[in-house]
Write a structure and sequence with these properties.
This protein is about 25% helix and about 30% strand. The protein has 14 helices and 27 strands. Strands 6-7-9-10-12-11 form a six-stranded mixed sheet, with helices on one face. Strands 21-16-25-18-26 form a five-stranded mixed sheet. It has a four-stranded mixed sheet with strand order 2-1-13-14, covered by helices on one side.
């Protein structure tokens, strides 16, 4: 209990949470099952909440006029109470995001946004559920402005201090909930803010832990899970939060058939279920496969970029490769497009070897419980990093990377827009090619999914760093 509230027994409140629905709208049965499970679990004491990036990001959003607003039927049918902004919610622009927030049932909340239009979105709100007062505060990723790149005038402040100030302004309540689309910083929010639960987002992995007395939970995204949090009194004076994760099984969960039919009809009209390729060995689409170094799908995507540009090498941004069900057997147009559902072009950059080496030197970073993550998948290029994330060597087309040689490197326009990798900026762009999704689709049709791991990205202990490549 926070502050002086009405004396008496503290009621129990249920939170149903999700985040990063994104491609769920491409799967009618899944989005119908998610809505059906929410309807089955909710009652008058239930608070339904999203933690950002719950607008559409997938095939329907990319290939139809509705765009990211493909999420509208879900929002109107489920009527969540509260939501916050994810970085992808700003992909269509700052003004679109704020207009969207004002047009759908959930109240969008964000305490750490500033800039033109941000005053249209409250920091937080107080809701009553089951006789209890619950304050909810939303938080955007602290690097949203950098991640989005093209969104001008967007400023994001420290999430912990912003949440603390917002809760102070909201006054006495029974429970506090944070909707935090902060990714790796979600645990820091849980540690630094006096709240009962932090519902996290941005990273597509399940998290369930207590941090400094605050429950931190996160679902894997894409509508694959729903988390249920019971907020209620213990035998003492303080409330407790207990979480249960519900896997969404379209074949087993109760279906909201009306909602599923809406998305099924949209998909049928689009005609995206044409078979474009066949794979004999399943291609996983996991978070580890995106960032953990070389993967077969990462190689496919980088090969597609390189082939489209006729370049010496390609750097495919790992974050652009979306997670989802594995590709197996007959592969449809929709499945290939969903790997990278972005409409920006492949760009061809001209870099000297020293500049390319500088980009690679910044491409690896530490990750808890792993040897480290890498920002790119590669084609025509092999690179080796130590476990300390130091570049230990690189080759292009089998030859050591030459600082004085000029290389043509294919990558996504997004990479040059965000200007996060030094020399790969707008000044380096020499040509534009087809859209990213078109490039992947063409390469899949040509057999590009028949791909293997080849040792393009390596991790080695420091003493072995000088063995091989150009070391």
């Amino acid at each position: 209990m926070y502050g002086d509230t009405t004396p008496g027994a503290q009621p129990t409140v249920r939170l149903l949470g999700y985040s990063d629905l994104e491609s769920a709208y491409d799967d009618p049965d899944r989005v119908g099952a998610l809505a059906g499970r929410i309807d089955e679990l909710r009652d008058d004491a239930t608070l339904v909440a999203g933690a950002g990036d719950d607008t559409a990001l997938g095939v329907l959003a990319l290939l139809t006029d509705a765009g990211r607003a493909q999420a509208r039927p879900f929002f109107e049918r489920v009527a969540p109470a509260v939501e916050t902004f994810g970085n992808h919610d700003f992909d269509p622009g700052r003004e679109w995001a704020y207009e969207w927030a004002g047009s759908v049932p959930p109240t969008y909340l964000c305490a750490n946004l500033a800039g033109p239009g941000s005053d249209r979105v409250p920091d937080g709100t107080v809701l009553e559920r089951g006789g209890a007062r619950v304050s909810v505060v939303g938080l955007a990723h602290p690097e949203t402005a950098d991640i989005c790149g093209a969104v001008e005038g967007l400023r994001v402040s420290n999430p912990v201090s912003a949440a603390r100030a917002a809760f102070d302004d909201l006054g006495p309540v029974d429970y506090r909930v944070v909707l935090a689309h902060c990714g790796a910083a979600d645990p820091e929010v849980a540690a630094g803010v006096d709240a009962d639960v932090v519902l996290g987002g941005h990273r597509h992995d399940r998290r369930h832990e207590h941090v400094e007395g605050t429950l931190f939970v996160r679902t894997p995204g894409s509508g694959t899970e729903l988390v249920e949090v019971a907020l209620g009194p213990t035998g003492g004076d303080d409330p407790t939060a207990m979480a249960t994760f519900h896997e969404i099984a379209p074949d087993e969960d109760p279906q909201d058939a009306t909602l599923a039919d809406v998305y099924r009809e949209r998909r049928e009209r689009l005609g995206v279920d044409e078979t474009v390729a066949h794979v004999d060995r399943s291609l996983p689409r996991t978070e580890r496969g995106r960032f953990g170094g070389e993967s077969r799908l990462g190689n496919f995507a980088a090969d597609a970029f390189r082939a489209a540009a006729g370049a010496d090498a390609a750097l495919f941004p790992a974050g652009s490769l979306r997670t989802g069900p594995p590709l197996s057997g007959d592969v449809t147009r929709a499945e290939v497009v969903s790997l990278c559902p972005f409409d920006s072009p492949v760009v061809e950059c001209v870099l000297d070897g020293a500049a390319l080496r500088a980009v690679l030197a910044e491409a690896a970073h530490p990750h808890p419980g792993d040897r480290g993550w890498v920002h790119f998948h590669t084609s025509g290029l092999r690179a080796r990093w130590t476990d300390a994330n130091e570049l230990a060597g690189a080759t292009v087309d089998g030859d050591p990377l030459d600082d004085d040689r000029t290389y043509r490197v294919a990558t996504a326009e997004y990479v040059v827009v965000i200007d996060a990798f030094g020399p790969v900026d707008r000044d380096a762009v020499a040509a534009e090619h087809d859209r990213q999704w078109q490039t992947l689709l063409a390469h899949a049709r040509e057999g590009g999914l028949d791909v293997a791991r080849e040792g393009r990205i390596e991790r080695v202990p420091a003493p072995e760093a000088a063995d091989g490549l150009d070391g």
